[in-house]
Amino acid sequence: MAETIDELTISYTEDGIETTKELDKKVLSKGAWSTIIYRYQDWDRAKEEYGKEKYTIRRYQKRNGEYQQKSKFNISSADQARSIIEALQEWTKE
Q1: Sign (positive or negative) of CA dihedral 37, 56, 8, 71
Q2: First vs last Cα of the chain: how many Å apart?
Q3: Which positions ≥6 away from 61 have C-beta within 8 Å?
Q4: What mean pLDDT, rounded, does the chain reach?
């Protein structure tokens, strides 16, 4: 488990292959409860290449000096990401 936000990652390696490749991350909030959005790609074993970019929002709670993932929301496509952006932009105009 990670002790700092900088150590948190969604990168995952299995059998010597990075099956989840983290491309970027942005910390949305820090504290006892922290929120991070990640940009990543999954390895497609059949095609032997990385798939399209995906996005995920993860919530972590820091307990006993370590961050533990408590929830996540996966954004499955660029279209869904754009829809979320549009909704948030509309709502935050006020």
Answers
A1: positive
A2: 40
A3: 32, 33, 34, 67, 68, 70
A4: 95
Q: How far, in Å, CA of 59 to CA of 39, rounded?
A: 15
Distance CA 18, CA 14 (A): 6
CA 13, CA 93: separation in Å to the nearest integer?
A: 42
> CA triplet 21, 26, 30: central angle to 5 degrees?
125
pTM: 0.90
Half-sphere exposure of 53 (CA within 13 A, CB side): 11
Residue-wise pLDDT for 42-86, tens only, equals 999 999 999 999 999 999 999 999 999 999 999 988 999 999 999
